[in-house]
Amino acid sequence: MFKGSIVAIVTPFKNGKFDKESFRKLIEFQISNGTDAIVPVGCTGEAATLTHDEHREVIEFTLEIVNRRVPVIAGTGSNSTAEALELTKFAEKVHCDGALIITPYYNKPTPAGLYIHYRTIAEHVSIPIILYNVPSRTGISILPETVAKLSEIKNIVGIKEASGSLDQVSKIISLCSDGFDVLSGDDSMTLPIMSVGGKGVISVAANVVPAHVKDMVHSALSNNWEHARKIHIQLFDMFKALFIETNPIPVKTCLHIMKMINLELRMPLTPPSEETRKTLENILRKYQLI
Fold first, then answer.
1. Strands (E), the chain
2. Where are the alpha helices (DSSP H) in 110-157?
3. Is residue 11 helix, strand or coil?
4. Architecture of domain 4-222
5. Residue positions annotated with a catalytic role
6. Going edge to edge, which strands form the sheet with 156-161?
7. Which of 69, 116, 217, 280 has its CA 20 to 30 A from that of 244?
8. Where is pLDDT greater, at 110 or 178?
9. What's the predicted TM-score (pTM) here?
10. pLDDT tier at 31 (50, 70, 90 boundaries)?
11. Residues 134-143: pLDDT tens digits?
12. CB 235 within 8 A of CB 205
């Protein structure tokens, strides 16, 4: 259902508040460069430090500016099932095209708990749901067998996989039907994941180089693997640089250097070290972005 180059878009701030004007420009930048869908208020969008009112505001504003030009898949996860359900119901109410729901963090549920968490949400909404597995942030990894069981639920349509394990991805694809889409959650793993059957990426790097990420992903989808491989190698340094400090510190720093947003992050995230900033400036020069 969802494939291609999907951006996990940052949330810009100005004087501590959601910066709508900068966000509007970021959305237009994405759409004009061929991005296939937009994910607001995910991890890259600093959802963890947005209030619920801000979370809803960002979702509604995204829908307003996108105006049905591309799908909007709202981040609606929480470590509380009731809270995740409330946010997902809101995403459905305002007509999002789907919801991206992270595995519950900190409380580390069992496989049975993960199944019940997602099943409960799916049973109370009708919009498509994408599971999100990112154990480096949540402390828990969803087993391929649990993913397969969840994939039998009609409106659970895919998974964003950021475990860093190609074995995990391969096992998920082997256990699930062809209609269940696996998307990379790690830019440097996108091409390897697509080589075993993945359908695209929910990308951090697309914030900075949307046309390049789109070109790589669409080349792979079209079986032009040699061209996709060349772009992967060209972008590899960028992919890695965007994680030299905690995401979204590097990507917001890059967008700031590119004069697209203010460099504001919600505490406890802080601006990058001077060394990191210099590294990112060099990366942007390498790709002729500054």
1. 4-8, 13-14, 17-18, 37-39, 73-75, 98-102, 129-133, 156-161, 181-184, 200-203
2. 111-124, 135-138, 144-151
3. coil
4. Alpha-Beta Barrel (3.20)
5. 132, 160
6. 37-39, 4-8, 200-203, 181-184, 156-161, 129-133, 98-102, 73-75
7. 217
8. 110
9. 0.96
10. very high
11. 999 999 999 9
12. yes
